[in-house]
Amino acid sequence: MQAVIAVLPGDGIGPEVVAEGVKVLQAVAARFGHTFTLREGLIGGCAIDATGEPLPAETVALCRASDAILLGAVGGPKWDDPQARVRPEQGLLGIRKALGLFANLRPVTVHPRLIGASPLRPERLQGVDLIVVRELTGGIYFGEKRRERGPDGEWASDLCLYTEAEVVRVVRVAGQLARRRRGKLTLVDKANVLETSRLWRSITTRLVREEFADLEFETMLVDACAMHLIRRPTDFDVIVTENMFGDILTDEASMLAGSMGMLPSASLAEGRLGLYEPIHGSAPDIAGQGKANPLATILSVAMLLRHSLDLPEEAACVEAAVATVIDRGIVTADIATPGQVIATTTAVGDAVAAVIAG
Asked: For substrate, which residues are the binding ones (predicted)?
């Protein structure tokens, strides 16, 4: 296979973890006889420094001309002023909107060797295997924002807006995914308070009845879900929810796996185009020190191979290599057990690539 992959290293630890993801892509290409053409672009703070904008038009064009996108992370203290005209996060929101990346898939599994890295009791983590499907281009993050001064002082508002079409298309992705997994779909909302959540619930309930009647289906309020993710995480299979709820719940769920450094994600458009990134941020406090865990990025590469390039065997090979490296104890500090030798970012990537190469 020949494929063009856009590589957006971003800020902070982004370039470090993306370098290990690229290393793994090259190992896969060599083992399976593929040709991956990698083309680098700017996004986030580094793009602001170079061009004045967090998402240059050249980056959007590069991504549109590619089969898939690998992203590191954006942001850092240098660009943290919330009053600034341009901010790194605008690049992230902008690329999602520009490419129509409406469905964000965030799988959460727990490697047996890493159970001790989680703050939860071990018995609650055995068999955790869930995936959150988060709507990514609508809701409060993209709604109209206002901030003004009135007779009672300053006031602000953020509009949370969803259309039926936006809900239907992401629920269809979640339903099809649940059908390929264990057949259970959980809608998370706040329908006792929010009108947008009541829209989500009515549309999802109807769609499940009409198209996914074979699935086990439940609805759950977001606050209850936040509790049950910790109390009984093995009960979940596929969770579908709106943009902000999905953002918060998946950060919480990262503690099941022991570290944000273990969780990959895929942001999918209609068709096969997708953007793949770890769920963690740019972690500027450890940038350049070789401490960043590259496994979430490497597992994002596996998702890229599976969803955008339709290479399931290669994806499984990467996932198996990650499991092997963890079993061998070649891990960064965030998932190391007391007394364990700590590996660098590069050493972990080298180890995964070596396993793939055989």
From this structure: 96, 106, 134, 223
